[in-house]
Amino acid sequence: MRALLSRDLRLAVRAGGGFGLGLAFFLIVVVLVPFGVGPETAILARIAPGILWVAALLAALLSLDRIFALDHEDGSLPLLATAPLPLEMLALAKALAHWITTGLPLVVAAPLLGILLHLPGTAMPWLLVSLALGTPALSLIGTFGAALTVGLRRGGLLLSLIVLPLYVPVLIFGAEAARRGAEGLPATTPLLLLAGIGLGCAALLPFATAAALRVTLR
Amino acid sequence: MMDLGKYAAEVISAWGLSLALLGGLVWWSLARDRKVRAELERAERDHG
Amino acid sequence: MSIWTYANPRKFLDTTAPWVPWLMWLSAAVLGVGLVWGFFFTPEAERFGSSVKIIYLHVPSALMAINAWLMMLVASLIWLIRRHHVSALAARAAAPIGMVMTLIALITGAIWGQPMWGTWWAWDPRLTSFLILFLFYLGYIALWAAIPDPDSAADLTSVLCLVGSVFAILSRYAVNFWNQGLHQGASLSLDKQENVADVFWLPLLVCMAGFVLLFVALVLLRTGTEIRARRISALRARARRGEPVRA
């Protein structure tokens, strides 16, 4: 499993692997928002947690179709399936690789981009924690969606249509946690729920993902 | 039409749109069924 | 005799096809009675005025929107466990019906809320949940359409339905959490007294029965269509391969 993980990470970081793409997209969306809603500090500060969450979510979405695309294109997917590693672990490894290459950079970049949106300093740690707890869930859900649509023509659009409604609970609790933290209110409930969702996804989604992969590999 | 009072526009539009959607769904289902039945007859004649 | 004998597509068609026209007419009659009764022969409500008449379409459609998804969930499970093609096709057949029901629930809900909130859309928890349900239906239908192999499509959409159901329930709670305290007391539920009043409840019951009958009729009709469509593809595929076709 470690070999699989490191292979995916190396592939992602290489040129054309899309490593910086998610970060760049994150930056672009955050930069666009003030152009859309106006530069007024109070307004931007108010919506900053939510905007950062939505932007992170969209950036994570962008790189989902790459999760299985390379393996499918060069035909190594069936080989991976026959490897001694159970397909469920493969799914977990893929999700982890996606998180390390996309989710984690987003978490790290979020406070910096928060400065652009006048995110109050007190909100930064809350934003960090909510994203750190939420982005793994995004990767796990996204990996499931990618497994459903692997090899389909125009799979990317369909992938977004399927995955975005599934992202709603994570977004709601994550953004709420960040928002409450920004306002100085206790944010334990949404954070706990967020962590719960993440754990649930890690425990159950790999099975659904593996089932989907088996169908495609028949 | 009886007097619907100040909510007349809401009631009429809600009912109108809903019945149009329901009618559309039923019509489309029936039309598709007719088309597929005809195609099946043709396919069974040619290849059955 | 077990219900599983109807899992055979031929038997399903033979058994259900004669019933479909009867069910369609029956549902039209029941629905007609319910709607006419509700529209013309009920009084106005205290808080809502004549707009209360929207419930005769809003409540049954919302009910069917959920029930259609539940039926799809059960059908998907039956497909995954027992591999009955009729079950998979029934789920596929039910999806557009559920989607239209959700749309009707959304439109009537939004229009009904307009006098209350002064806007054509409100992020009321219930309406928002239905909007998310609508997106789930869209994704499900799109996935069916995108996969060329029918059995793979049935498998993948069934898994999506299962996972989607869990997330749909999760979303319901998340949305309630998200919008608590904003529209307290202005959500779209009738007052306890008005709900109990027979004068509103009976025609509503008839409308709900009409919607259920319509749903059953349409699902039987559309499942039959799907079975026939599959037979057409099978005939054509075998003809292309030059094999003799089993009757």
Helices and strands, with pairings:
The complex is a heterotrimer of chains A (218), B (48) and C (247).
Chain A: H1 2-13, H2 19-37, H3 41-62, H4 66-73, H5 76-82, H6 87-116, H7 124-149, H8 155-182, H9 188-216
Chain B: H1 8-47
Chain C: H1 9-16, H2 19-40, H3 55-82, H4 85-117, H5 125-146, H6 150-178, H7 192-196, H8 198-241
How would you describe what is shown here?
Chain A is built from 9 helices and no strands. Chain A has helices at residues 2-13, 19-37, 41-62, 66-73, 76-82, 87-116, 124-149, 155-182, 188-216. Chain A is elongated, with a radius of gyration of 18 Å. The longest helix of chain B has 40 residues, at 8-47. Helices cover 77% and strands 0% of the residues of chain C. In chain C, helix 3 packs across helix 6. Chain C starts with 8 loop residues before the first helix and ends in a 6-residue tail after the last helix. The model of chain C is unreliable at 181-194 (pLDDT under 50). The chains are: A mainly alpha (218), B mainly alpha (48), C mainly alpha (247). Chains in contact: A-C, B-C. The interface between B and C is large, with 32 and 40 residues.
Total helix count of chain B?
1
Gyration radius of chain C, in Å: 21 Å
Largest interface: B-C, 32 and 40 residues
Chain-averaged pLDDT of chain B: 89
Tell me, briefly, the overall form of chain B: rod-shaped
Poorly predicted tracts of residues of chain B: none
The CA-CA distance between the termini of chain C, in Å, is 26 Å
Secondary-structure element pattern of chain B, one letter each: H
Rounded radius of gyration of chain B (Å): 20 Å
Structural class computed from helices and strand pairing of chain B? mainly alpha
pLDDT averaged residue by residue of chain C: 87
Number of strands of chain C: 0
Helix content of chain C: over 70%
Which structural class fits the helix and strand makeup of chain C? mainly alpha
